[in-house]
Each structure stands twice: as structure tokens, then as C-alpha cells.
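Annex B. Sample input.
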Amino acid sequence: MPVQRIVIENCAIATVDADDTEHASGHIVVADNRIESVGAGKAPGDLENVVRRVDGTGHLATPGLVNTHHHFYQWITRGLATDHNLFDWLVALYPTWARIDEPMVHAAAQGSLAMMARGGVTTAMDHHYVFPKGTGDLSGAIVRAARETGVRLTLARGSMDRSRKDGGLPPDFAVETLEETLAATEATVDEYHDASFDSMTQIAVAPCSPFSVSTELMRQGAELARRKGVRLHTHGSETVEEEQFCKELFGMGPTDYFESTGWLGEDVWMAHCVHMNDSDIAAFARTGTGVAHCPSSNARLAAGIARVPDMLAAGVPVGLGVDGTASNESGELHTELRNALLVNRLGAHREAALNARQALRLGTYGGAQVLGRAGQIGSLEPGKLADLVLWRLDTLAHASIADPVAALVLGAAAPVTLSLVNGRPVVEDSRLLHVDEDAVARSTRDEARRLARIAQGDRP
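Annex B, continued. Sample output.
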């Protein structure tokens, strides 16, 4: 079958390549699912099999946004425990989360994915770690929702085996055994992981956190991931309380504990990493361990300000994460571009902490690095996959901002005129093409109410 091309012209372009190449008015040619060319001015006039031409006047084209940390299931528990720190918030919500089932998880995944996709996310990540017994195929529900939405997915198959009786935070009925979680994780990798260049679904091994899993699960989880050739993910150094927990339980801080269990390396990324000293940052840089920076969630749970400028200066790969929508109710990654810049300027580096282009890089190429896919996505370059977003910047909200990247990052949330994933349109004129947003809204509302009734002791 002949190559089919989509041509986008007359738009500003931020490629986010190694040189941060930008064009005030340029073109992008997509051939099937790859970027064929990017450049200034009009596209070549002799292109064959052009099935669509898009006039990008008044728009900025960027790589699709890459989310590096999320908990989709939390979509149906938004707006609860709004004035808690992390540990109190977890204790308050674990009993509810432990009652989720497959229909709830599917609806919540649809809601989470829909909100992100509408806001320019083309690659989503979900860290799902709550698997109540007898509640259906939860991993399958998440993968199915991503396929329905049309978004690329990294599913981090999480786990918990340290409950309250073992000194952890989750209730006893909310955890799996070591043997159960290792077997289920391996089965998930075998069923869903696709290592191909244009993969739409990849799996990571992801024990939840040091305070909810055993040391043996950390060690054997790392061994499993490396045996299967997949990445590793967990929460790390999120709060002061976590650091105290690790020192009391393991006799060392979180980073030293992670290193002792095989959890530092180029195939690992950690969520949050708020409380990192110079030695911790140096260890991440030395080993190539990545970080998912979640500024809104960190602020919502009063966790603190991660040292992102210092991490970047040391060479640590850093991407952006929404985190679960029980701690970031908006569920949108494009707002994290702005929040990452603003929150980090409240830290030690002040106005020199991050600029608009660094924030955009965190949300695109940085995220691709963290997920191990920088060779395929994260920048607009010939040969890469055609994951891109066309943002409208000629409305009242951005009309007086001359710099389009500054307009996108610092201005109001920009509408998405077109989003392509793997060369396929997923969003047009701020509307999803493959799922019914109104139906998703109804479904998530109904499942949230059902979960609330169950958590209060009623029958479904």
C-alpha cells in the first residue's frame, strides 16, 4: 500500500531536538506513522499521496506530551482527603481503594486518559498497584481503555505486600503475597508488553513504595524486570516521613536502600524524589536513574519542592507526571508545564530555576527519556514516530504573547486543534475522536458513586 502523508504548514514549531530547533513558520510531513520531514517554510510541493493538509496558522506544533507517573483508578476518588499529608491521605483512602473492581478501573482509566489526551498527552503512564482479590482483570481494563482512547501506554504493574500487620500503611485485605504479585506481574508482561519501535503498550515492574512492599519484593521485582527486559518504577523520596521510615526500618535512607535492592540504573525511574540530598542526586546521575516530577501533587500533599534544577544540572533524566487524580484533581499534564516552572522558582534557584523551554522539554523529551523511548518519541525529528500536537495560540488567551513557547507554558491552557498518535488523529478541535466524552463522564460518575456506597458498607 502506498505511503499516506499528512502535511501541516504555516505553524510555529518547537522540535525539542538536541539543539532546541524552532521555526517561526514551518512545516511537518507525516508519512504513515513516522515523521518524514520538519523544516522552515512550506512543505515540498511534489509530495505524493497527501491525504490531508492542515493549515497551522496561529498554532504551535510540539511533540506530544509524555506522562511519566499516574494512578488512573484514582479518577473515581477525586476531591477526598483534601487537607492531608501523604501518609494520612493514604491511610484515609486505602480502605476505599481496596474495594475497586474491573468496571471501576476501566471507567477511571477512560476518564484519566480522556482528560490527558484532550490536553496534548500522546503517551500515558499508569502505576496501578491495588489488586483486590476476585475483582476481575484490572490490568486488562487499563490496557483496553488506552486502546479505545488511542493513546500510547506504559502500564507499570504495581504491587503491595507489606500491610499494617507488617508495619506498612495498606489494610491487610488490600495486599497480595510475594508469590502472587511476582506471578501476576510476569503474566502481565508476557501478555501485554510490546518491545517494538512503534509499540502502543509497554509494561514495567512497579512495587508501590518502600513503605508498602517487602525488601524481598523489591529485590525479586528487579530481578524479574531485568530477566524480562522491561523497566522498573516505584515511588521514592516523596516525603520527610518516608525518609524517617526507611532509616528506622532499613537503617539507611531511601536512595541507599534502593541501591541495596538493585533499584538504581538506566532502566529505573522513580516518582517524586522531593527529598534528595547532593549524594542522592549524584547516585541518580551516576546510574542514569530517572525521575518523574509531579509538582501539583507534591504541592497538594505538602510534600515539598523537588530539586529539579540540581537534578538536570547533574544529568539526571527528568520527566513530568500528573500523579493520581486523588492528589491532582485536574488530571492534566499540560498544566504541569506551567506548575513545574512556577513551583521550582519558589526554590533555591528562584528565577533561574527553569525557563519555558526547559519546562516543555520536561514534558516531552524528558518524559520519553524516563520511559526509555527517547529514540522513538519526545521530539519532532525525521524517522521518529508521529506523536505531535498542534496548539491554538491565536485566541484572546494568548493573542498578546509573541513567543509561542512562552504562551504555551506560561499562558492559559491552550486548546488542542489536532493531536496525532502514531500518525493517527486522536483529538480534533479539543474533542476526542475515538471515545464519547459525555459517556465517559457519566460512567466515571456512576462508578464513583458505586465505589462510595461499597466503601460505606452497602452492597453494590
